[in-house]
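Example (one chain per record):
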Amino acid sequence: MTLGTYYIGYEGIRKSALTWQGLRWGLAQGYISRADILRYASDRLKEDSSDLEYELYQCKPEHTYRVDGILAELARHEDSPELTDPRHALWLYLLLKHVYEHRKNFDDPLGEVEILHADFGYPKDVTPFVRYMPPTDYDPSTYTRQENIDKLYALWKAYLREAKTRFEV
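Predicted structure:
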């Protein structure tokens, strides 16, 4: 698996329901930084948070060894194996959302969709807005090239709207 390089930062994850395992994976991929994780942890700190969560809250991003160690310990105590799979739909959603929201900054946003589609194992829910996949609900030959592109963007937007209900808090 050759994952594309995207930095989505704290803004890209702040409304999501990531686990400690998911945060570790995103950090390892370069999608987020330690500072992003500390901000995320700070936002979710509650009165009943664990001592480790409070310890993470007190860390500074430059204390790499400490942040990584606490994060690893928090992840070890977590029971969410489905979220450790790098092909997990939550990360795919976050990355597709990032590309969509910043599509003007990409030379070929639909090409980025194709890359993510492949990197995450060709998930069926993304297939409808992958440019090279044949549509199932209409005949593209009856539309102009631009109308077909607009249709892909509309399908992408619909995916993001639906996925938001599953992955954001």
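Caption: Helices lie at 9-13, 20-29, 34-44, 51-57, 64-76, 89-101, 109-119, 145-167.
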